[in-house]
Amino acid sequence: MTIEICIYGDGSIRCYVGGRIAASGGAVSFVGRERIARDVRQHGLRVTDWRGVDQRVSASALRFATTPELVSAANLVLVTVKSAATESAGVELAPLLQPDCVVVSFQNGLHNADALRALLPGRTVLAGMVSFNVVNRGAGDFHAGSDGGLEVERHASLAPFLSTFERAGLPLTQRCNMQAVQWAKLLLNLNNAINALADIPLKQQLSQRAYRRCLALAQREALSLLAAAGVEPAKLTPLPPRWIPALLATPDIVFRVVASRMLAIDPLARSSMWEDLQARRTTEVDYLNGEIVRLAERVGRQAPVNARLTQLIHDAERNGRAAMSAEALLAKLQAA
User: Fold this and answer.
1) Neighbours of 176 (CB within 10 A)
2) Degrees (nearest 5) of the Cα angle 280, 284, 286?
3) What does pLDDT average to over the chain?
4) Which of 15, 76, 289, 303 has its CA 20 to 30 A from that of 310?
């Protein structure tokens, strides 16, 4: 079987994952924005990670388009669009996909795979998750700044593709309970808003107790609501999710020793929400912190901390980014 993979969407994850596949000899094509396509046509792709991976793919070896026709040749389509664009992606993909094409949603949030299934009846659509951070350094250079891998809903249809991802150094970890994994990732992603508001690199932000206390407040609120809803998030880190807020609140000297793995991040890494604010794009805050607010509504409670973070990000979208000190942000969240 000829394996053709198409990565449909925008953002740094698409270029990094696709670049790793292409660098290992895999057949991969890209569908995305003209801005990124122009960079790639001029510079090719360079993909690096904080542990020393450094691979280049020449522009002539890449298939990069801004219209979706390339997906018609694919056996596997990885959807990486922002959550708000999921519906339009499904509508665009529906008439082009091969009948036996497998679709994986590598998107933030909880419900994108369900939305795609509704728009792509009869197709195999699987939920997935990217657990590492990627920064677009410009000129076709994409850098993974933290540990992690690719996780996907377990399904027999993935068998033909596993070796391709293994060769690329990005093995697919298959999970039986993908919803628990997505909730666990969302708990970690509650920091995206805090990092964007801090306007500093992730490692620097997580090294400051007051910023960590902001994340601890958001996570405790979310964990309480998940317990009320009968949801148990998966264990993605050495500690169970319910223990992480207490660790975050420890003094800096303790945190540096006990949570050294959490600080094992490239010094330049930042959240994708920070990148969106920089580019004056709409963020995914409604699909992250906003998801906690909707969960609270479903169980008849409130989520004031995550509601305030959502509001602060929307304010930054409208008014332009403004760096907030750790103390100022913590005061706003405690007041909520």
Assistant:
1) 8
2) 120
3) 93
4) 15
